Amino acid sequence: MGENKLGVSEVKQKTTRSVLLGAAFLMATSSIGPGFLTQTTVFTQQLAASFGFVILISLLLDIFAQVNVWRIIAVSGLRGQEIANKVVPGLGVVLAILIVMGGLAFNIGNVAGAGLGLNAMLGLDPITGAIISALFAIFIFVVKEAGKAMDRVAQIAGFVMMLLMMYVAISTSPPVGEAIVNTFKPEQISIFAIVTLVGGTVGGYITFAGGHRLLDAGVKGVESLPEVTKSSVTGILVTGIMRVALFLAVLGVVSQGLAIDPDNPPASVFQLAAGDIGFRMFGVIMWAAAITSVVGAAYTSVSFIRTFSPMIEKYHNWIIILFIVISTLTFALVGRPVTILVLVGALNALILPLALGTLLIAAYKKNIVGDYKHPIWLTIGGGIVTIVMGVLGIMTLIEQIPLLFK
User: Fold this and answer.
1) How far apart are alpha carbons 50 and 185 in whole angstroms?
2) What is the pLDDT of residues 295-304, one digit of tens each?
3) I want to staple 23 with a disulfide (CB 3.0 to 4.6 A). Which of 146, 203, 212, 213 is the partner?
4) Residue 8, pLDDT above cutoff 50
5) What are the residue boundaries of the structural domains of the chain, listed by start?
């Protein structure tokens, strides 16, 4: 009998470990999309070795943002929109609308990226590739254990991307010493690059992806906090490893004086680093990055409206599938609606300070977290991220709005 109990306990521990790793990779691979690849390449071209400093600062801000969000979700046992509604009635609805709008708009870009990935990998037409990729993403949510399937796909895709990225980074022979020196003593600093990286890593729906996944898997309560904190930091570190590997790969190409194609910077880096095989490898990375972002965006966006109606809760997997179908049809029939993407990109910059600020207030409300005492250092760190991203988010919005009327 004792052995049987031990067996059940071991199975439960393995399941929890798998869920925690799955949540970390879901968050990480959600943030590593087509935009991630392009931004990292372009900023490395602009800042050279000093981009290492931008990565370091953005990772520290990311950790403060994500650890706060995941811990408060776990302690309260509530999703982000439910917490926001308890802090200010109706705020959860506003947050949900912003996140669903952002998730849908960015998913059009993710689907496009998946199509471009299959185009580079296999030579398929991008629209055909996008439709095939969407069917793959839909299949994940059709299977009985959709959560486990999603965890597994995120983990496999994450490991494949990391290995290929590291291979390319090594093959370009980057000046690692110069990169290390500039990470701690940069020759130039770009605030815009830091904001863009933080927004791309924990902005919009992304920081909630893993937190909501853990909640759906039953990982919650004060007793789960050590594991939740570890999982949240793991997600950021996976993203950081990918960012550093791509940074070094681009730095290696730039330091050799090779010209990167401005029309497709990341593909150009891989081709310059490893020829035609490098271009195919870029296709694999682009597809893996895009497909996991499609899955993450759809899953998390719908998780923000699940609590609004018993019907949505009951059929949430089918609504996730509908979300993917709408994104794919929009890309196939319209292309990428630039005006919408510009506006939503600017609005996305406001989601992180709004959501994080709300959750930090919630951390001190007994009707939400009970007797839990939130660490003061996390509150201060989270508060700094909220203020910095709030101010810069408003500045970004003011800059972007005139572009809509040109």
Assistant:
1) 8
2) 989 999 999 9
3) 213
4) no
5) 22-404
